[in-house]
């Protein structure tokens, strides 16, 4: 079994020098579930549940609460952070094997997040800009963040949330007043059980992105109040998604969303207040870049961290450079083919979130619940 002292030895300088505040944990989690979901999730869930998509967003409050309680229970019952807790619960062979799978998944999600943003930029903002330049620029920023250390990254995430979260709600508020029609929400509650269930699973799967909590929680300076922080994350996410879905339906209608590649950006472009406040899309892009860079860097950081465990390394930040080549190549292949990217967005990503970020932790939860270590 993995010993806690040995784990912290491998964590080295990072763990011993500082802890992360609970607010910084909040910022990490908001960045994980916010920016990507803000861009892709409303359109995906509206295409499933039509005008009642906002009800499925509200329902995710209950399924999300169960996920948070599950993660919290695993943290209390585990002596070591992820990925070391895999060995703690499953043994060294299965732990190493699962860690290798998670390493590939983290690199894939980082590449997918980057490809999604690059595709968005090239199709809506800078169509003549070479994809390679955008990918290289964003990866360079992420690389600098990883090399600067987790403490600097946590402080950057605070700035991102301070700026991005209020602006996102402001965008939704202003956009909802552009040619609204409340009748587009009718009939309320007229939805099949199948469609409601699919939309609920889609909304809940995004909350699986809170999985990095199993690592960051062990850096927290006050784990006793971690539950309240996580429920604040959940309430913020549900409020943001419900408000976004409502605004898009009221302005565009559920049937129109299918022809919009990025409904929230279309809503931003409509904002025009007395011909004085308009063209705010460039501000939206500038702020949203921060969130996307934060989201992809977290999974990039975890890929390096998992590699440290797999290969028994004393440091892991030097892995950021070689991993950047893998991420750049994969994201370039994804972003060049919009059909492949759409398939990944609408089908593959949900299964990855559910299987690896929810189902496997659920097995750990069950093992921790019914089996006590001596």
Report on this structure.
The protein has 16 helices and two strands. With 374 residues, the protein is mainly alpha-helical. Strand 1 (272-273) and strand 2 form a beta hairpin. Helix 8 (131-148) packs antiparallel against helix 15 and helix 9 packs across helix 13 (263-270). The longest helix has 33 residues, at 92-124.
Radius of gyration: 21 Å
**Uncertain parts:** 1-17
User: How much is the average pLDDT?
Assistant: 84
| Discrete helix count | 16
Q: Helix proportion of residues, in percent?
A: over 70%
Classify the secondary structure makeup into a structural class: mainly alpha
Order of helices and strands: HHHHHHHHHHHHHEEHHH
Strand line-up of the largest beta sheet: 1-2
- The total beta strand count reads 2
Shape: globular
Report, as a whole number of angstroms, the end-to-end distance. Answer: 12 Å
- Looking at how many chains there are and whether they match, the oligomeric state comes to single chain
Strand percentage lies at under 5%
Q: How would you characterize the largest beta sheet? A: 2 strands, antiparallel
Give a brief outline of the structure.
This protein is mainly alpha-helical. It has helices at 4-11, 13-17, 22-33, 35-49, 53-77, 84-90, 92-124, 131-148, 150-175, 193-207, 213-216, 226-252, 263-270, 281-310, 320-335, 338-370; strands at residues 272-273, 277-278.
Topology overview:
Blueprint: H1 4-11, H2 13-17, H3 22-33, H4 35-49, H5 53-77, H6 84-90, H7 92-124, H8 131-148, H9 150-175, H10 193-207, H11 213-216, H12 226-252, H13 263-270, E1 272-273, E2 277-278, H14 281-310, H15 320-335, H16 338-370
Antiparallel strand pairs: 1-2
Helix pairs in contact: 3-4, 3-9, 3-12, 3-14, 4-10, 4-12, 5-10, 5-12, 5-16, 6-7, 7-8, 7-14, 7-15, 7-16, 8-14, 8-15, 9-12, 9-13, 9-14, 10-16
